Amino acid sequence: MSDHRIIRILLLEDNPDDLFLLRAALSKVQTHHFALFQADRLKDAVELLREQPVDVVLADLHLPDSAGLDTVKNLVRNSDSVPIIVLTGYDDEALGAKALTEGAFGFLSKDDFNSPRLPQAIDRAVSSKQHPRSQSK
Fold first, then answer.
1. What is the CATH number of the domain that holds 117?
2. pLDDT reported for residue 130
3. Is residue 75 over pLDDT 80?
4. Pairing state of beta strands 62-63 and 6-12?
5. Which phi-psi region, left, alpha or beta, contains residue 35 (left: φ > 0; alpha: ψ -120 to 50)?
6. Is 15 within the bounds of a domain?
7. Nearest C-alpha neighbor of 22 from the set 31, 44, 76, 34
8. Is residue 78 part of a domain?
9. Do 107 and 57 form a contact (C-beta atoms < 8 A)?
């Protein structure tokens, strides 16, 4: 995105180290500007989604009050079509495929925080929300 509009991101992450790394990685992205909202529990994320418009959700699957695909299902049910990118600490394509079938937009390993894949995934997710007919299934 070259227009530098602000992309509003909900970070659903309960691990302070991963949250620090994710925030640091996003701060290095020069092609985007971000407004970050953070929740460390699913219930808080759902409340934030009701109160604050966001463009994309970056969500860890293992939280104090939810785990695995139940997290994805609950977010999809409460996100009002906001794209959800699932984050995981390990590269598990089977889990990623399952998350996609439950309605997640994408899947990203936490190992990719400092790679171009993070801003590319965010850009694709935001673009899909703006142009839903162009998204293929």
1. 3.40.50.2300
2. 64
3. yes
4. unpaired
5. beta
6. yes
7. 34
8. yes
9. no
Q: Can you tell me the mean pLDDT for 70-82?
A: 94
Rounded to two decimals, the pTM is: 0.88
Determine contact, residues 39/14, Cβ cutoff 8 Å.
no
Copy the structure tokens of residue 94.
């089977």
Q: Which domain holds residue 67?
A: 6-127
Could you identify the residue written with the tokens 């937009």?
105
pLDDT, tens digit, 9 for 90 and up, residues 79-104: 889 999 998 776 677 787 899 999 99
Handedness of CA 76, 79, 85, 91 (dihedral sign): negative
Q: Is the Cβ–Cβ distance between 42 and 67 less than 8 Å?
A: no
Q: Is residue 46 part of a domain?
A: yes
CA–CA distance, 18 with 97 (Å, rounded to integer)? 23
Domain count, the chain: 1
* Burial grade of 130 (CB within 10 A; 0-12, 13-18, 19 or more): exposed
**Helix-then-strand count for the chain, H and E:** 5, 7
